[in-house]
Amino acid sequence: MFRRARRSSDVRRLDLDRPLVEAAQRDPARFEALYRKYVAQVYSFAFYELGDHHAAEDATEQTFLRALAALPRFEERGGLRPRHDASPDASTFRVWLFQIARHVIANERRHDRRHPTAALESAAVVAGPDDLEAATLDRAAASAAWSAVAHLPDDRRRAVILRFVDEMSTSEIAAVLGRSEGAVRVLIHRALLAVARELGEGT
Amino acid sequence: MTFGWPPDEVDALRTDRYLDALLESARTAADAPAPSELDPAVRHSARRLRRELVRVHPSFRFEEQLSRRLADAAATIDRAGGGLRLDRSPVVGRRFGGEPSLESGRSVPASLQARRPLLVGGAVASAAISLAGAAFVVARRRSRPAPPMRRAVLAAHSRFVPGRRASRARRVPLA
To answer: N or C: which end of chain B has fewer CB within 10 A?
Structure first.
């Protein structure tokens, strides 16, 4: 009993979204705050996985609609507890949301057979419009990096995207992908070696 | 010294620690120190991906439209007093921008099918019109012809218009 209460208080303390989640469970209209907080992260994950803006919008829409529908059950299905040394943004709600996103995106990929080798046209624009040469180089560099990531096996690619784009901790990625933390660390390490080989860097 | 750990996992652990520092350095604008044991290839590719894999934001229009749609769904949950039911069958859903469109094969909550009442209403109206038309045709076909004497009287008080059939004769007032 004491152990359970202590564990529950740990979850309550660690999950930074707990107040927002509880408010949304009491009043579904309050889901707006969670949506605003995570829409860009979910969209980015979907975009890098699907390589298409429209498909990413569809996946984002489905993810949040499913999350809203399943929010009353979140407490029971929670129990995804980040480690104490997890990133400051660690949140069990975020892990749960990205698990939904992962399933939605997997269905989307199976359904449409889209592959993320398409040009990353919007994300690659970093330089100002005046500096065309720099813009072209930046775009080429971004395309090369993205192409290297896109050629990774599915699990490695997802782990890299969650680590670099969504800035998740290893424990969060492990919970999203349903793998152990050690396995995720190895996935990312091997992915970085593969990307280095593809880009011809450091070897 | 790996303390009995497989070398691959030790390297992965070093990489993980470096990535923690690298991602944290983006927040603090400080440079992340790379440990000397870290593979240079890993360090290069990590820095490259940190720079190139930027977060992509959805369009403002999409974000606002999805926000409105979620608000509608939340109101539906409030009214129903429970969760939404997710339906896998093709449904008529409301597309972003207020334009209705068919969404085949997508999972859309049944409670969000804004056009469904209109479709049901239209189907009822067209069915009613069809029933009225069928009843009219049946009534016409079942109507009995006028008796011969009545037809003769009508013919005597009317004139034939040249080039027209008898059935189309129209009554002309007598001068």
So the answer is: C
Sign of the alpha-carbon torsion through B115, B120, B125, B131:
positive
Decide if A202 and B48 are in contact by the 8 Å CB cutoff: no
Residue B100, SS3? strand
> Residues near B159 by Cβ (< 8 Å), separated by ≥ 6?
B169, B172
Q: For residue B94, what are the CA distances in angstroms to A57, B97, B108, B135, B159?
A: 15, 9, 10, 37, 62
ipTM of the complex: 0.76
Interval A10-34: pLDDT, tens: 444 457 888 899 899 889 999 999 9
> pTM (2 decimals)?
0.64
Instruction: Find the residue in A nearest to B61 (Cα).
Output: A57
Length of chain B measured in residues: 175
Q: Which residues 56-115 of chain B have a CB within 8 Å of chain A?
A: 56-58, 62-63, 66-67, 69-71, 73-75, 77-78, 82-86, 105-109, 112
d(CA B73, CA B89): 18
Looking at the predicted structure, is the pLDDT value of residue A104 above 50?
A: yes
Spatial distance between the Cα atoms of B17 and A104, rounded to a whole number of angstroms:
31
